């Protein structure tokens, strides 16, 4: 018997920290690890966008600029959420990205 998780409800539990909060932190790399008990067939891009309250376009620009990286390395756009994935925000790159976007 195979279980169907397509209609399961889930919550994204995170600290209430904004991108602007991150640029004033004392660390160069801000990391968070994904904890997933079940395989929900959920896109990693969806979770990252929800956590940072950003659009898909913003996420793509941040990935291209190296603001966000993911371990293990791989194509973020095609990845599914898996237990143990680490999302890394590079603070200085984030700061430059936000300064550039505020100009537009």
Strand tally, please? 3
The strand order across the widest sheet is: 1-3-2
Question: What sort of overall outline do the alpha carbons produce when their principal axes are compared?
Answer: elongated
If helices are DSSP runs of H or I spanning 4 or more residues, what is the number of helices?
4
Mean pLDDT: 84
Global Rg? 15 Å
Question: Main β-sheet, in a few words?
Answer: 3 strands, antiparallel
Q: Into how many domains do the coordinates divide?
A: 1
Q: How many angstroms does the end-to-end distance come to?
A: 53 Å
Provide the helix percentage: 25-40%
Kindly report the CATH topology: Structural Genomics Hypothetical 15.5 Kd Protein In mrcA-pckA Intergenic Region, Chain A
Strand content: 5-15%
User: What's the CATH architecture name?
Assistant: Roll
Which stretches of 5+ consecutive residues score pLDDT under 50? none
Helices and strands: which structural class? alpha+beta
Under the CATH scheme, which class?
Alpha Beta
What string gives the helices and strands in order? HEHHEEH
Secondary structure layout:
Layout (H helix, E strand, L loop, with lengths): L18 H4 L6 E5 L10 H9 L3 H9 L3 E4 L14 E5 H13 L1
Antiparallel strand pairs: 1-3, 2-3
Short descriptors:
104 residues, three-stranded antiparallel β-sheet, alpha+beta, Structural Genomics Hypothetical 15.5 Kd Protein In mrcA-pckA Intergenic Region, Chain A, 3 strands
Please explain how this structure is put together:
With 104 residues, the chain is α+β, with helices and mostly antiparallel strands. The protein has one domain (19-103): Structural Genomics Hypothetical 15.5 Kd Protein In mrcA-pckA Intergenic Region, Chain A, CATH 3.10.290. It has 4 helices and 3 strands. It has helices at 19-22, 44-52, 56-64, 91-103, and strands at residues 29-33, 68-71, 86-90. It has a 3-stranded antiparallel beta sheet with strand order 1-3-2. The N and C termini lie far apart (53 Å).
């Amino acid at each position: 018997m195979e279980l169907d998780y397509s209609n399961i409800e889930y919550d994204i539990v995170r600290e209430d920290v904004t991108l602007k909060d991150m640029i004033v932190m004392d660390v160069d790399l801000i990391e968070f690890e994904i904890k997933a008990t079940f395989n929900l067939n959920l896109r990693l891009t969806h979770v990252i966008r929800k956590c940072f309250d950003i659009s898909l376009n913003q996420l793509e620009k941040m990935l291209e600029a190296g603001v966000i990286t993911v371990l293990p390395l791989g194509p973020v756009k095609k990845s599914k959420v898996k237990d143990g994935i680490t999302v890394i925000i590079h603070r200085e790159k984030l700061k430059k990205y936000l300064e550039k976007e505020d100009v537009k």
